[in-house]
Design goal:
- The structure holds two protein chains of two kinds.
- Chain A is of the alpha/beta class.
- Chain A has one domain: Response regulator (Rossmann fold, 3-Layer(aba) Sandwich), CATH 3.40.50.
- In chain B, α2 runs antiparallel to α3, α7 crosses α12 and α10 runs antiparallel to α12.
- Chain B has a five-stranded mixed beta sheet with strand order 2-4-5-7-6.
- Chain B is rod-shaped and about 195 Å long.
- Chain B folds into two domains: 285 residues, Histidine kinase-like ATPase, C-terminal domain (Heat Shock Protein 90); 180 residues.
- By secondary structure, chain B is of the alpha+beta class.
- The chains are: A alpha/beta, B alpha+beta.
- At the A-B interface, α1 of A face α7 of B.
Chain lengths: 135, 528
């Protein structure tokens, strides 16, 4: 495992990717940004990321499908779900399906960096089960 | 929606509300006045009058009958007396004749004359009535003279030696015969006259009775018909009002007849009830709208998170890296901030426009634009539930005449229902097309969900009927929608197949009376 964290950010709001890319790059992440779920899924099939950050509600393909795709590809990858306030139940469902954590909109770049930091820590000590964080 | 439209609208809406309420109260008051200022002629009075007239008539017939019977009775009595009198006279004459022919006793004849005289004296008043002056000028003098002559004859008989007896007897005989004759013929004459008069009276009375019976029958039939038809007619009229009110037409009842009666109070009470109903209906429509707003709020809150998140991320990026950025980057980010703030505003504006209470504002409406606004309003909620919405409309559809907010409420309700019925990942179709019948436009909202079982299809428009779980639906949505559509002269129809989905069609009449719309528009415009 290298120092740089391979991160994929998927949100159908282009501004999210635009702002998160430099914000995460600052803390040493290699960030790939997508605003189309289909393109992101194609990329996920190609490459094993360390962290995938995905919005839950998108047109065509939703975040749960992305989560399932990532889980199929690699169980090591930490998936962080972005949710709206109205979708807490969906977020819990995502946690049960093996998401690492969720972050509710609106969030600051610092909020996300913190969650990604925890994900990086979890990646370094794989003995700790991700579900412990969820509780 | 253009921004410049917004500031003018709330004022106009409120003005229209106040005007609408004022006009309804004015109409109700005018109807009340019109109903009350008519002269009172109640059904109680009509029935009483009818029976009183019938009574008077019957009383008249009965009285005339009693009088006739009394008169006939009198006449019969008189005839009896007269015939007794005639018998006595005739008897007297027979004795007189026997005296002249066979020289029998004259005393018997005199006795008969006394009897006749007694009869006359006893019934002198009666005789005066029937014979009038002739009683004193003819009947009595004749009888007296006859008696006198008989007495003279008797006197002659008592002195048989008297000279010239036979000659005297002859002279008296002549006169006696003459008076006897006169007496009998006169009495018979009177009798005949009385008999004739009695026969006439009986015939006349019979005619009067037959005629009265016929007139009474016609009169009774007329009264029964008049009262019956005016009562039943009014009852039927009120049945019509009830049907009209049930269909959602709350126009106050105005007077039809020239008089006030018991139904006037009913009409006034119904008019009061209509005012209450209208107020309640307005409250119901508004509260139902607020429920829809509540449903939409979740979608709006969620949708609002997107621009808010973009603003948060952008603002933080600016804060963190302001110094390292060049002017172009800063400008771009500030531009994003402004755009996203605008986006947030437009998300809540639609909902606020819809939620705002406004009075009935009737105007020509472009249904396609209205449906676009409505689908836009519901879009967040629909996206949130993962359902797709397809919208298609026929170009250049004629406008319909109606209240935009109320119709939007109807369509929104149908769309939200369709959303509830659709499975995740399903779709809803919204079509605006010409209706099957001419001069109507149809809005069809089609879902491909579970469908409505046939046995409840008939009751889905009933108030408080719901298939949703307790707390999720009031069962008033379709009922309120139907009320609104009915007020617009339209109908909501449903067709559904279990397991395949449902189609709700709202059919609305197009504006065929441009003059009327033209007349309405400046009025609401002038108030703004």
């Amino acid at each position: 495992m290298s120092d740089t964290l391979e991160v994929l950010v998927l949100d159908d709001e282009p501004i999210v990717g635009k702002r998160l890319k430099p914000a995460l790059a600052k803390v040493g992440c290699a960030v790939e940004v997508f605003d189309s779920p289909a393109a992101a899924l194609a990329r996920i099939a190609e490459k094993e990321f360390d962290v995938v950050v995905t919005d839950i509600r998108m047109d065509e393909i939703d975040g749960m499908q992305v989560l399932e795709a990532v889980n199929r590809k690699s169980l090591r990858t930490k998936v962080i779900m972005i949710t709206g306030y109205a979708m807490m139940s969906l977020a819990r469902e995502a946690m049960e399906k093996g998401a690492f954590d969720f972050i509710a909109k609106p969030f600051t770049p610092e909020d996300l960096r913190e969650v990604i930091g925890r994900a990086a820590q979890a990646l370094r000590s794989p003995a700790e089960p991700p579900s412990a964080l969820a509780g | 929606m253009p921004d410049d439209k917004q500031p003018a609208e709330p004022e106009r809406g409120q003005a229209a509300t106040v005007e609408g309420r004022y006009e309804r109260i004015k109409a109700a008051e005018a109807a009340r006045q019109a109903l009350l200022t008519r002269p009172r002629f109640s059904f109680r009075t009509q029935i009483f009058l009818g029976f009183f007239l019938a009574f008077l008539f019957s009383f008249g017939i009965a009285t005339s009958m009693v009088i006739t019977i009394y008169l006939v009775e009198n006449k019969m009595k008189f005839l009896e007396i007269a015939s007794e009198y005639v018998t006595e006279i005739q008897q007297a004459r027979r004795f007189e004749k026997n005296y002249f022919l066979y020289g029998t006793n004259l005393q018997d004849a005199l006795e008969q004359v006394y009897l006749a005289k007694t009869i006359l004296e006893k019934n002198s008043d009666e005789l005066l009535r029937v014979a009038g002056d002739k009683r004193d000028s003819m009947i009595i003098p004749h009888l007296q003279r006859y008696e006198e002559l008989l007495k003279r004859l008797a006197a002659l008989e008592s002195e048989p030696d008297s000279p010239r007896l036979n000659q005297k007897k002859k002279e008296i005989e002549m006169e006696v015969r003459q008076h006897g004759q006169e007496m009998v013929s006169f009495a018979q004459d009177v009798m005949t006259k009385e008999k004739e008069s009695m026969a006439r009276m009986v015939a006349r009375s019979r005619n009067i009775h037959v005629l009265s019976f016929a007139v009474a029958s016609i009169f009774m039939v007329y009264i029964a018909y008049f009262l019956g038809s005016s009562l039943l007619g009014t009852v039927n009229r009120f049945q019509g009002y009830a049907q009209r009110i049930a269909a959602g037409d709350f126009t106050p009842i105005t007077p039809i007849r020239r008089f006030r009666d018991e139904f006037t109070e009913l009409a006034i009470t119904i008019n009061q009830m209509l005012q209450e109903l209208e107020a309640h209906e307005a409250t119901l429509v508004q509260s139902h709208k607020m429920r829809a707003v509540g449903t939409l709020t979740a979608g709006v809150a969620h949708e609002l998170n997107n621009p808010l998140n973009n603003i948060t991320l952008t603002a933080h990026a600016l804060l963190e890296d302001y110094r390292e950025m060049n002017d172009d980057d800063r400008r771009e980010m500030l531009g994003d901030l402004v755009n996203e703030a605008g986006r947030a505003q437009s998300i809540i504006k639609n909902l606020l426009d819809f939620a705002r209470e406004s009075g009935a504002q009737v105007e020509p409406l472009d249904l396609v634009a209205l449906l676009k606004d409505t689908t836009h309003l519901a879009a967040n909620q629909i996206k949130l539930s993962g359902i797709k919405m397809e919208f298609s409309a026929t170009d250049n559809l004629p406008r319909v005449h109606g209240d935009a907010q109320q119709l939007q409420q109807v369509f929104l309700n149908l769309i939200l229902n369709a959303m509830d019925a659709s499975p995740k990942g399903g779709k809803i179709q919204v079509l605006v097309v010409p209706a099957d019948e001419p001069n109507f436009v149809a809005v069809k909202i089609i879902d491909f969900g579970s469908g409505i079982p046939e046995h409840i299809l008939g009751s889905i428009f009933d108030p408080f009927f719901t298939t949703k779980t307790k707390g999720k639906g009031t069962g008033l949505g379709l009922s309120v929608s139907q009320g609104i559509v009915a007020k617009h002269g339209g109908r909501i129809m449903v067709s559904s197949r279990e397991g395949q989905g449902s189609t709700f069609s709202v059919v609305l009449p197009i504006t065929t009376l441009p003059a009327r719309i033209g007349g309405n528009m400046p009025r609401s415009g002038a108030l703004s």
